[in-house]
Amino acid sequence: MGVLDYxxxxxxxxxxxxxxxxxxxxxxxxxxKMDCEGCERRVKKAxxxxxxxxxxxxxxxxQKLTVIGYVEPNKVLKRFRNKxxxxxxxxxxxxxxxxxxxxxxGAYDKKAPPxxxxxxxxxxxxxxxARASSMEERYSTAxxxxxxxxxxxx
Length: 154
Prior knowledge:
This is Copper chaperone domain-containing protein. The chain is built from six helices and six strands.
């Protein structure tokens, strides 16, 4: 390694940025009750000035606040609760097509927006019911139209 290579490595921007750890761009979804336009403004104002926030979206129909930016979900939730005094939680729903059995006892929720079910994949009590076992998958794919090697019964 020559002297010029050593000096150029010291002066390069890559070397400077290695010491500083950057946060990842994240989407934080929060479930919060909103009744009126005043609540919407209050919800938006609570996280608007937070460092790292790039975009805020409020969906009053689904009672949902979406924050996009270089932030941590728990810090956004904590700040939101402190500023507004409202009860809030991280968005507990996922699209129903992500779950193998969306209408299992713990997954189906009447309060969920259309097309969503409760996220049971992280819940150890209900997750074994929501996931199909290997035997169930084998039997269901044996007669599937999507499987080219499947049996056909006439």
